[in-house]
Amino acid sequence: MRILLASLLVCSAAQVASASIQLDFGKFAASELPAGPLNTPQGERGYGFGAPITINGVGLDLYAWNTTNATTGPPLTSQVLSTSVDTANFTRGGTPTQGGSNNAGPYAYLDGRSSGRLGGLGASQELTGSFQADPSSDDNVSGVGSITNGREVVGMIFASSATIDVLSFRDLDHYADRFTSTNLIDVTFDSGNTWETISPSSVDGTYDFGGRLVSQGDIFGLAFNNTQFYLTSAAINVVPEPLAVFTWFGLASIGGIMIKRFKQG
């Protein structure tokens, strides 16, 4: 009986504990992750605004938008929930149902390998009928030539709250070790309400946020500052839901009472 209770409590604790997960956008785009429902739909392609994907069992929705000033752009929460668009600062991609020059981009884009080097999450202003970047070179996060001071932004909403640890970036040529201290990327953890600027490591293209929180329902976004890039991977921790925590403490209390009674008996 004690062994059974101990096993139940250990399993419950494992479910409640924060789960560390590697979101391999580059390998996902290259269809190199294990096949099945934990990684779907794999492959290189573009996605409409709010499109859902699952990587290593984590559900997230992808977003991309253009802004004329990423660091002071409008908050996105109301934009995500509404069909209205602030055309002066904000445009968003629709559902990519057709290709050609009349696409209403930008679109979040997952790019595979180039000369053997991984890509990752980027953006494309237009897609072909098979959801490929058009032109094929327009697949990373960059400036928007058709908009004065235009910048592309990509983002994601997680199915539950999460903390962000190490991000891994590649440059426009898919290299991880060619960034310098002058290569800048803008980041938001709260749907565009506030922004900050980072510079990936010149050694391996990484940046460690050390567990920064993204609340459930908020967009975690990355914007072009002065450097074209792909987000190749992200190490995150899924934050336990309150109900799961309550269940764990409830099980622990019941288990303690039962063990005590077992000893007394």
UniProtKB/TrEMBL annotation:
Provide this UniProt record's keywords sorted from A to Z.
Signal
According to its UniProt entry, this protein's organism is: Bythopirellula goksoeyrii
Signal peptide range in chain numbering:
1-19
Compositional bias per record (Polar residues), positions renumbered to this chain: 89-104, 125-143
What is the superkingdom listed in this entry's lineage? Answer: Bacteria
Location of the region described as Disordered in the Swiss-Prot/TrEMBL record: 89-109, 124-143
Q: What is this protein called?
A: PEP-CTERM protein-sorting domain-containing protein
